[in-house]
Write a structure and sequence with these properties.
It is built from nine helices and no strands. With about 260 residues, the chain is mostly helical.
């Protein structure tokens, strides 16, 4: 005689459960696909901000350069490099994630937009892990990485990530039509990085040069973060301009995903 072992037929998984499983699988694949296909490779990316900071501080120390903001060169470099790298990594890796996971979209459960969301989540987690690690390193070397106005610095750093997400979605739209843009964008980010005031205070540049530098949103984001460490530096942040960049790029990126990326499917 057949005995029922359950109260009814098995329940089908909800769409939310399926979507979350897809995202988690894509995120794990992202983490394993970095630097050799292991989770240790993902650790290399998290450690990179510390290596980057050590190289810059070493170069400045070798040349006898002093910090133009306070007495701690390591803190000064970190306040410029961390937001600049956050924007750079997020905007670039979102584009790379789309290209890496593109073959997976042949599975009906995986949509191209899912690959973008998964990479964004991974990059946000990586950014904050990198910040925490840099803070630990600075404390170990006797520096004080805690800003005087933590809310101001955190808002500036979050704006860097948000701008990276917006520009990253635009890059996805461009790469869906011109894959070679992935290489061209490296030159764009390198130019922005070198001219954004990571190694110097842009506000101490000649007035005419500073005027044009402020058109670069990364310059103002770095100044926003540093303003939380030293409220006396003579900078004026155009918050409306920065929010316009964030929401403008995100809107344009989503429109490109809707009308350009999906058109390539």
């Amino acid at each position: 005689m057949h005995v029922e072992t359950s109260g009814g037929p098995p329940q089908a998984r909800s769409h939310v459960d399926v979507y979350l499983n897809v995202l988690s699988a894509l995120m794990l694949r992202d983490m394993r696909s970095r630097f050799g296909g292991t989770y240790w490779g993902y650790l290399v990316q998290v450690l990179w901000p510390c290596v980057h900071l050590a190289i810059i501080v070493g170069a400045m120390t070798f040349r006898g350069m002093k910090s133009p903001m306070g007495e701690d060169t390591m803190v000064f470099v970190a306040t410029g490099a961390l937001p600049a790298l956050a924007f750079q990594y997020v905007s670039r890796e979102v584009m790379k994630g789309y290209m890496t996971h593109k073959p997976l979209t042949y599975f009906p459960q995986v949509k191209r937009f899912d690959t973008i969301i998964a990479r964004i989540l991974v990059e946000i987690i990586s950014s904050f892990m990198g910040v925490c690690l840099v803070f630990v390193v600075l404390i170990c070397f006797g520096s004080d990485p805690i800003p005087a106005d933590m809310f101001t610095s955190i808002c500036g750093y979050l704006t860097a990530i948000a701008l990276g997400i917006g520009v990253g979605t635009i890059n996805v739209g461009i790469c869906s039509v011109f894959p070679g843009w992935a290489m061209g964008y490296i030159l764009v980010t390198l130019t922005l990085y070198l001219t954004s005031g990571v190694y110097f205070l842009a506000c101490y540049m000649p007035a005419e040069a500073y005027y044009y530098m402020k058109w670069n949103p990364i310059t103002q984001i770095i100044e926003w973060v540093r303003l939380g460490y030293d409220p006396t530096i003579p900078v004026q942040i155009d918050y409306l301009y920065l929010f316009g960049w964030v929401f403008g790029t995100l809107t344009l990126g989503l429109l490109m995903e809707r009308f350009v990326v999906r058109a390539q499917q």
